[in-house]
Amino acid sequence: MSGEQLYCKVCGARLTDPQCFCPSCGAKLEESNTKSNPNSNGTSQNSNESNNNANGSNQNSNGSSGNTIVIVILVILGLVAFGQCSSSNDPDNWGAAYDWGPDHYWDTNSHSVKEKTKCVARGTLITMADGTEKAIEDLKITDKILAFDHMLGEYVEADPIAVYNHGYALYHAVDLEFSDGKTLCVIEGHTLFDLDLMKYVEITPDNCTDYIGHSFVKYSDKETVDSSVLISANAYDKYDEAWGTWGFSKLSCVTNGILSIPNAEGTYNYFMYDDDLKYNEEAMASDIEKYGLYTYEDWADLIPYSLFEGFNFQYFKVAIGKGLANHETYMDYIELFYELSNEYE
C-alpha cells in the first residue's frame, strides 16, 4: 500500500503506509479493503476492478457442484458466509476444496458487535485423522479430520463438510482455560461435551462461568475418552476472525484438543449418551419407536441427498419430537440456503 494515498473502504479513513488494520474503525486491511484517492485518475481503481473480475472468473471456473453443498452446510446451521457456487443435487459430489479468500469476508463494521456467529478464533488447532494438528484457517475440504462417532463410541476419520470464515470483526469472545493447560478461544458461543451433564452444552460469554469446575471431553488417543476440567472463563470483546468446521455426518471435531460441535439447535443431543459417549442403544431404539425417523423422500423436494446424509436429517424427527427444534427451524435453514444459492449462482 505505497505510492499513492489510500483510504479504508469500510469507514473512509486516510491510511498511512504500512498498516494492517484501519486506525479508525479497526477493519482488517486487505487489497480489496482499501481504495485510492477518489480525486486520482482512477488508474489504480480500474486495475483493481480488473483484478477482481479476473479473480471472480477464476473462482467460477474452479467451482464445482460441491461448492453449492458447502453453501448448503453453512446455511443449514444459520451461518451466513460469502462465496460463489453452482447448483447441483448430485449426491456423489459432496464438496470440493474451497479457498475462502479476503474477498469473502463479512462486512467489518467495527461500530457493532457481531452476535449471531458462533465459532472459534483464528489459530485454533484442528486435530487431523492422523493425530497431527492444523490451524483452522489452513484447513481444506480435502483434508481428513478427527471426529467422534456417537454410534460407535469412538474417534473416526471424517471429511470436513465445510471450512468457513465469518471474517474479521468485533466479536464477543470467551477465553476458556482447562486443568491440563489447554485453552480455547470461543467466538460468541461454541458447543463442547460436558461429562458432568453427559451432553453437549453451548458455552457463551453470558453463561461461561456456570461451567467452571465441569469436566469436558479432551482428545488423548483414539481409544480413550479423556477429560479436562474447565478452571477459568474470561469473556470480553475482541477483533478477530471467526472460523468453523465439522465432520461429515459426525458433525464433531477436536478444537485445541477439546471435543466440540458447531452450535445449531436440533442437530445434537437428540439421543442419550452412555459413559463411553456412545448412544444408548435401548434409549435410542425407544426414541425412534416413539417419534419415528425422516426418510429422504420427506425432504427430496427441498434438499439434495448429500445434505440429508451429511447432517443426519433422519434424526431431526426425533429432535422435533423432543422439542429441541421444530419443523420451521429446518425450513428456515433451507430457505436461507436457497436465498444464498440464488444470490451467488
Q: What is the distance, rounded to the nearest whole angstrom, between the alpha carbons of the first and last residues?
A: 33 Å
Task: Give me the CATH fold name of the largest domain.
Answer: Endonuclease - Pi-scei, Chain A, domain 1
Q: How many β-strand runs?
A: 16
Largest sheet: 5 strands, antiparallel
- What's the Cα radius of gyration? 21 Å
Q: Any idea of the CATH class of the largest domain? A: Mainly Beta
Structure, explained:
There is one protein chain. The protein is of the alpha+beta class. The protein has 2 domains: 1-62, no CATH class; 63-343, Beta Complex (Endonuclease - Pi-scei, Chain A, domain 1), CATH 2.170.16. 21% of the residues lie in helices and 27% in strands. It contains 6 helices and 16 strands. The protein has helices at 43-62, 65-76, 281-291, 305-310, 316-321, 327-343, and strands at residues 6-8, 14-15, 34-36, 119-121, 125-127, 133-135, 145-149, 154-158, 160-178, 183-187, 190-194, 199-203, 215-218, 226-247, 253-255, 258-261. The strands form 5 sheets. Strands 4, 9, 10, 13 and 14 form a 5-stranded antiparallel sheet that branches. A 4-stranded antiparallel sheet has the order 12-11-16-15, with no helix packed on it. The longest helix is centred in the first third of the chain and has 20 residues, at 43-62. The chain is globular and about 65 Å long. Mean pLDDT is 75; it is low at 32-115 and 340-345.
